[in-house]
Amino acid sequence: MSERDWPEEGELVVCSVTDVKDFAAFVTLDEYDNHQGLIPIAEVARGWIKYIRDYIREGQKVVCKVLEVNPSKGHIDLSLKDVNDHQKREKIQDWKNEQKAHKWIGFASESSGVAVNELEDALYSLSGGSLYKSFEELVISPEKTLAKMNLVSAAKDALIKVATDNVKIQKVTVSAVLELTSTKPDGVNIIRRALRSAEPEVADAEIELLYLGAPNYRLKVTAYDYKTANKALDKAAKAAIGVVERAHDKPSEYSAKLIQQK
């Protein structure tokens, strides 16, 4: 895990406070092989500090921002005051997720017979350093994700099973009302073709078409994130509108547009 040996400047890290002096607090970095770090008193809290232990104490778990890293000297300078409550909550949750992911790798290693380090390296390469995000990808796009991993079949099968058994991803839904009309004699058939085209196969998204009453139809898209969902919605709407537009010579002969979106 060489990529995890030292943090980068500006990164948020989870630390355990080991010693508190009048001038600074000493910590170990939980995610980086327990490397030692220093929080100068000026970086503990904003404003004048009379008693440092009013703000930080031994045994406490804190989230710090990395100010400076010097691997040759083994020095890591940190700031506690530069981390707000929102950042702290998010970082702690990410850290907890990574702890879970490490356990899952152990399960996959035991069932597949593939070494933990080999599985970790394969997962780290997928997400730029987050095991948990890699497990999420295995749930969202299993085939696409597995294709990127240079592992034996037994290891891939074990990772998929662990991911599907443990990772629960909340899906999101977006929708829009599609208005489609045609004054042509075969307008009903044109609208039918347009509606069929509004349900294309889109990776990682489910598209549903609901009849609201002519000329309105609701496009409902469910996906794992809003970016994917909105992209699929846009593709479906453009496909339907395109069918109607190509079937007519004059704009006055039809209406094809999104009239509401939420």
- Report the total helices: 7
Q: What does the main sheet amount to?
A: 5 strands, antiparallel
Major sheet: arrangement of strands: 3-2-1-4-5
General form = elongated
Mean pLDDT: 91
Number of strands: 9
Strand content: 25-35%
Q: What is the distance, rounded to the nearest whole angstrom, between the alpha carbons of the first and last residues?
A: 44 Å
Give the % helix.
Answer: 25-40%
Low-confidence runs: none
Helix-strand sequence: EEEEEHHHHHEHEEHE
Radius of gyration: 27 Å
Mind sketching the topology for me?
Elements: E1 12-20, E2 24-29, E3 35-40, E4 61-70, E5 75-79, H1 85-112, H2 116-127, H3 131-140, H4 142-147, H5 153-166, E6 172-182, H6 187-197, E7 205-213, E8 216-223, H7 226-246, E9 254-261
Antiparallel strand pairs: 1-2, 1-4, 2-3, 4-5, 6-8, 6-9, 7-8
Description:
The protein has 262 residues and is of the alpha+beta class. Helix content is 39%, strand content 27%. Strands 3-2-1-4-5 form a five-stranded antiparallel beta sheet, covered by helices on one side. A hairpin with a 2-residue loop joins strand 7 and strand 8. Helix 1 (85-112) packs across helix 5 (153-166), helix 2 crosses helix 3 and helix 3 packs across helix 5. The mean pLDDT is 91.
Describe, in short, the structure shown.
With 262 residues, this protein is of the alpha+beta class. It contains seven helices and nine strands. It is elongated and about 85 Å long.
Q: Which descriptors apply to this entry?
A:
single chain, 262 residues, alpha+beta, five-stranded antiparallel sheet, four-stranded antiparallel sheet, 27% strand, elongated
